[in-house]
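Batch manifest, entry 17 of 40.
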Amino acid sequence: MSLEIYRRHNSRRCRTTSPTDSSCTNTRKPCPIWVRGTRSDGTYIREPLKQRDWTKAQRIIREWDEQGSRPKNAVPKATIEHLQTRFLDNMKAESRARATVQKYEVLFRQLAAFAREKGIRFVGELDLGALEEFRASWKDGNLSKSKKQERLRTVFRYARRHEMIDDNPALELGRIKVEPTQVVPFTDNEMDRIFKATKSDSNPRLYGLALLMRFSGLRISDAIALRVDQIKGDRLSLRTRKVKKDVSVLLPEHVLRAMQIFKPASSTHYFWNGQADVIAVAGYYRDYYFRRAFKTAKIEGQPHPHQLRHTFATKLLSAGVSTDSVAAILGNSPRVVFKHYSAWVPERQQALDEALAKANGPHNFPEDARRTANVIPLKRRRAR
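Output type: structure tokens
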């Protein structure tokens, strides 16, 4: 029996040209390994080995030679529950944000429910077909599906690194197409109605929170976690929770007055008692109080408190504030600000107009000359 292994290289993903070269420039997802040659019964074969690891592929071929038939892959003994425990413990050991850990907990709950329904117990039983079926069960929008798929790939990369599975089928999942969403700020009229609705709401802190988010650009989680000592004089200073950036904003006088009217939730925080889960409190404000205020203000569509941040950013950009300055205030990078708010950057539209004018250039169109020659003066036209 004479068998050899080789890689079927994808020229769009790697630059390796020799099929018998064990290396592959695509280190994240090496090209698949195939086997070809003559078996002991004299038949010629050429088929995928379902491996990307060259060393493991060599071991399979050696066992094939010794046994006279292709060895069957042993079912990995790592259970889904075992993977979940190790993965989540590792995330906590790495001090990942609680909100991030919660997203993986949701993913594992859904995966465990799917596995029970299908009678799947071991991680190795979750092949590409099973993962595609699991993905089809998601009820999220395309953007949420795309992010969840990335988390699923991260989980399976962890399982592959810890040898719970021989190959990572999650890498074979196709890309989920996500249509770019247009950032929609509130109009001035909508903002007036929102301020009126929050001012009359039974929650005395909601009006101050709405003003704070509109005129500081804070995310709702950062606004809820704002400490009393982080507003000194007329300036707000904090370190954002999501991207760990220092933010300093000059607050208008009407925002400062609104923050002084209500009684803070605790001696240290304006909207949070300092003990409950701050993400849960922010979610309650988002899903209950703001939803109620948006309904009272008769805001159409699906309004979201994050649009207050969008409104803050677009107002600054429309006023001619540079992308770098807006990024510093928001606690983002200029690249992220331009990605989300480029439609409101005056320099961008000006540059596009100049580029179009230069590219189009002056031309003498033949139809323009004929049209000019055929024009009949107004007096002669009346005479007819």
